[in-house]
Amino acid sequence: MSDLFPAHGGFRKLRSFQVAQQAYDATVIFCNRFIDRFSRTHDQMVQAARSGVQNIAEGSLAAATSKKTELKLTNVARASLGELLLDYEDYLRQRKLRQWKKDDPEAIRVRSERSDVSDWSGKSDEVFANTMICLINQASYLLWKQLQRLEDDFKKEGGFTERLYNIRKEARK
């Protein structure tokens, strides 16, 4: 890799991407099972989940030339997942289903295991939605930590414009 273009685009290795992708896949399954396919809510939930994944990838790919864009898109991913989180909470509330508290045994169990979404076909809508809330909270937390790391990296290393200037300055010597 050159001094001008640092390593970038490794989003598939990011745990935030992996968890967000799992949330996207599971949201498609959830919506197809429990939400009318022709409703606006179905489309909105799937698109919010997709936006979370796609913005992580796009931000990572843009990182070579714009830390600002990487930061912005990572935050957009987090915001999209926040919108999705509210949809799951609304689903439970509107149907008078129980929403797990953070310290409920079910929530603790979900946070401690890494299950494959394809194994979720037998889950009730209440368990599925609560499991999704746990998963989305994990992704949101990981994205928050990622944003903090990106901020620290920017403070230490600067951005593309600074690298351009420094390379040009060195070339003139």
Written account of the structure:
With 173 residues, this protein is mainly α. It has one domain. It is built from six helices and no strands. It has helices spanning 15-34, 40-62, 67-94, 105-112, 125-157, 160-172. Helix 1 runs antiparallel to helix 2 and helix 3 packs antiparallel against helix 5. The chain is elongated, with a radius of gyration of 19 Å.
In short:
With about 170 residues, the protein is mainly α.
The geometry reads as elongated
Distance between the termini: 22 Å
The run of helices and strands is HHHHHH
The major pleated sheet works out as: none
Q: Number of DSSP strands?
A: 0
Query: pLDDT below 50 for ≥5 consecutive residues: which ranges?
Result: none
Structural class: mainly alpha
Rg over C-alpha atoms, rounded to the nearest angstrom: 19 Å
Count of helical segments? Answer: 6
Question: Which terms would index this structure?
Answer:
single chain, 173 residues, mainly alpha, 72% helix
Tell me the layout of helices and strands.
Elements: H1 15-34, H2 40-62, H3 67-94, H4 105-112, H5 125-157, H6 160-172
